Amino acid sequence: MTWVPPAAGDLAGPFRFLLWLARSQARRIALAAVFGITWMVGLAVPPWVLSRAVDQGLVDRDLAALIGWALTLLAATVLIALLSIARHRTMTKIRMDASFRCVRTTVWHTSRLGASLARRVSAGEVVTVGITDVQVVAQALTITGPGVGAVVAYALVAVVLFSSSPLLAAVVLGGVPLLAIAVGPLLRRIESTGGDYRTYQGRLTTRLVDVLGGLRVLNGLGGKPFVANRYEQHSQDLIRHGYRVAGPTSWVGALSVGLPALFLAAVVWLSARMAAAGEISIGEVVAVYGYVAMLVIPVSSLIEGGGDLARARVAGRRIIDLLNLPVPRSADGTARRSPAGSGPLVDAASGVIIRPGLLTSLVTARPSDAIGVIERLGRVGTDAGREVLWAGVPIGEVDREEFRSRVTVADNDAELFAGTVRDLVAGRLEPDDRRIQAALRAAVAEDVVEALPDGLDTVVAAGGSDLSGGQRQRLRLARAIYAAPEILLAADPTSAVDANTEAAMIERLREFRGTATTMITTTSPLVLDRSDEVVVLVDGRVTSIGRHPDLVRSDPDYRALVSRVQGENDHGRDDE
């Protein structure tokens, strides 16, 4: 599958997006239309052959003609079956291609959004788009095969009927549009109620993701029953909205079968009266019945296709809403400047300067201030223009791929995808067992792997849900270390481990990183004492810079903060 991202015009509306999906596989769509037309039109052949067999074989008592038309009917039936198989295979490929194309497009765009995605769209909304909406949109492309064939077959049957009886042709031409008009209000109701249902579905999925992510904490706090009751209440709300969508949807399904059947009965009754009056032959009555019975299929396809399009308009709107989220300016691929060396990295908003070759600790009483600095320096979730300089170059002007290869943010909330420990530590890089073992040792995580049944080949669940908090934290740090960036920005990487492990982690990190630039946010005296430089933030601004012993003597705010943390640590800190 050749994939090209949609242009801005393709995201102007749901139907423009559907048109882009169709254009992306134009040849297959054209083939599906050909198969759809030949299959639908082919369905009109057996009634015509059967009418010839009746008039020329049975009525005229001509055995040879009867056998000839019977063999023709058999051949036509076999050919129709083969066309049906080819049509179905082609439509399946179209749906799969559209589904994969939608998924790839959303994954591509969410990767460009980076960490800013979490602040704009809930996790449940992204999951619902990727699982539900793409399937609904892909299903709507079915209209390009059977839908086109239904229109052509409908017109052809009307022409054939006109040659037999203008009255019958007029009934057919006028009856089918009336069927479409009858289901029109239902399609509009599906669209309006489907939008509300889709909103509630996204919210409930978000709640489920949050619950699963915090299940251990909830269980420890005894809050699981309360959350379960709340989730049940919201599930019932979703069910009620689902009933509002299911009502008109079920009516569309029923009418797509029932109305064509009533239409068939009316036309057969009229043709029988005309045959009784001698206006048409018995064979033509059989043909008319076959034609109209055949029309049940294209009419049903058109009605069902209308329902698919109504649902696709709702689902497509959610997809393009996600795809239209603006990408941070630094991710648009227009940046070209490349900083020389590893620094310094300067955050103008806070006054923080990360000097190259040092292990720098950033300490503040408000964790949000430290996280803000990390996000700005690491170009996470911001437009990162000229407020951060790297070796004098605004990081917004640095190519994003280059920046990500040279600067790594180690975040305690970074996702752990399901897979082996080897793949988890290697991340997007090629796995090298020797380097992986070295990274694990630097993060004091070798004991984590040794305790697992298959070592590096052990499969870890999504999110690391089968690991403890301390184990997940050390594996995240190992992944960041394995990337070997020029600059490593680590957000409180020792917060979930005990004092002994923490001391080992900072010593090994210093040893492993050597003269590579490293910054850690922390309030731990153990880490601060082993840092080359400590930067103190108060109310988001730098107030002091120095080594830990000097700051303890000279900065009362720093001394008070460290003393309070030391007192808390004296009460003990549990690992994992």
UniProtKB/TrEMBL annotation:
InterPro entries: ABC1_TM_dom, ABC1_TM_sf, ABC_transporter-like_ATP-bd, ABC_transporter-like_CS, P-loop_NTPase, Type_1_exporter. The chain crosses the membrane at residues 29-51, 63-86, 140-161, 167-187, 250-270, 282-303. It is found in: Cell membrane. GO terms for cellular component: plasma membrane. It comes from the Bacteria. GO terms for molecular function: ABC-type oligopeptide transporter activity; ATP binding; ATP hydrolysis activity. Residues 30-311 form the ABC transmembrane type-1 domain. It is a multi-pass membrane protein. Pfam families: ABC_membrane, ABC_tran. Keywords: Membrane, Transmembrane, Transmembrane helix. Residues 317-564 form the ABC transporter domain. CDD domains: ABC_6TM_exporters. This is ABC-type multidrug transport system fused ATPase/permease subunit. The lineage of its organism: Bacteria, Bacillati, Actinomycetota, Actinomycetes, Propionibacteriales.
